[in-house]
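The following block was generated as part of the benchmark described in Methods. Ligand: adenosine-5'-triphosphate.
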Amino acid sequence: MVKKVISNNQEKMEKIVALCKRKGFIFPACEIYGGFANAYSYGPYGVELKNNIKKLWWHKFIDSREDMVGLDGPILLHPKLWEASGHLDGFNDAMIDCKECKMRYRADNLISEVLGIDLEGKLAEMTKVIQEQIKCPNCGKKKWTEARYFNMMFKTEMNGIEGPVYLRPETAGAIFVDFKNVIDSCRVRIPFGIGQIGKAFRNEIVARNFIFRIREFEQMEIEYFISPETNWEPLFNEWLELQEEFALELGARREDLRRYEHSKEKLSHYSRKTIDIEYNFPFGFAELFGLAHRGDFDLSQHQKFSGQDLQYLDHTTGKKYLPHVLEPTFGVDRCVLLALSAAYSEEDLADGEKRVVLKFPVKIAPIKAAVFPLLKNKSELVVKAKEIFDDLKDEIKCEFDDNGNIGKRYRRQDEIGTPYCITVDFDTLQNNDVTVRDRDTMRQERIKIPELKHWLIDKLK
Ligand code: ATP
């Protein structure tokens, strides 16, 4: 299959970006200083959404499995690690500059977007194809430099350490260097996996498509250790399906997911198989997650560079060996973008109005319920609504809102994706019940106050 990023719904993307800023999901970072490097901050609702996605992942892949454990390693790791892993020599992207307008592009992306072909890793061919066939998308000229490689790791310095130290470009490295500590300290038996969530840093040539490609991002990565003698293909397929299942849990539709298998010539020398799971973002299909069989490359490299024995002892057979590894990897920010893209919808209502609604799956919705007194100036309604809010807020992420008319409050909660709105009205005072309005169907039902919390908890499961 040809990997092509097609621009198909720029307008939807612009609406999502605008909504994210207007409603406090995601802001351009350092805006008061004119912005900085296409970086973004997660605002109050964005951080809730992101945390819910991370919690869902941790639960699915760590907490609910007996064969998985977690880890939280440092961002600044021993520089030797990056020598051993090959990042110092090989973590490069190809860039090319327009001599006319000075715009810089990532060469393989430029080619795949304009021509729909994948030349990643073939520097000379990339230069030739761009120089001959592609005009600068910015100024329309064909005045290119040669394509050249650029190492994507950020360098820094550390007191007491000679030479540069690097911000990790992926979280996986920390897992491999702590492999021995985990097997020595926990009762794990192969097959088992170590999962980690954390920041990674890449000096991307061009940061773009909102939070899809940024220079400081978060990953959720797993190294799943298996015996070299295991029939790995069924396990590989299982992981692939679990990764897709996770995307569906974030709200993706099955038809918006596809698999892109790396061809033999593009595959790293140590990998038996690598598949990207792509999602149909508003700007087209692009990598969401990856899954790679990495053999014993990482552990054998670290064994060689550290001089330490990193073999696993199989207690039943008495055999020692270096495990092979399957690596399912997930980008947190790309999950957030998926969740926003899948949830965003515009609807025409019966009364002629329009509504924008984020139809998040309930588990990841930033706010689960909003509590309203029907009228702000009727203290008996306000007191009752506050009472209900106080009773719910410890267990359910809630908001209290008495601002504007009920219609406006519904629209506000729709736009941030709150699944349930609870209104206290005059009947409440008589009947001890409230109106609960469902975000997606907009249907309302009366629920008795003593049953409300359990009713909600049940719905939010
Ligand atoms: P791409 O081809 O898009 O550059 P990659 O193949 O280099 O991605 P991996 O090294 O496999 O990505 O990283 C694992 C995951 O981390 C990706 O599947 C993606 O979800 C996420 N990721 C990688 N680079 C970025 C980035 N610059 N911004 C946001 N997320 C990223």
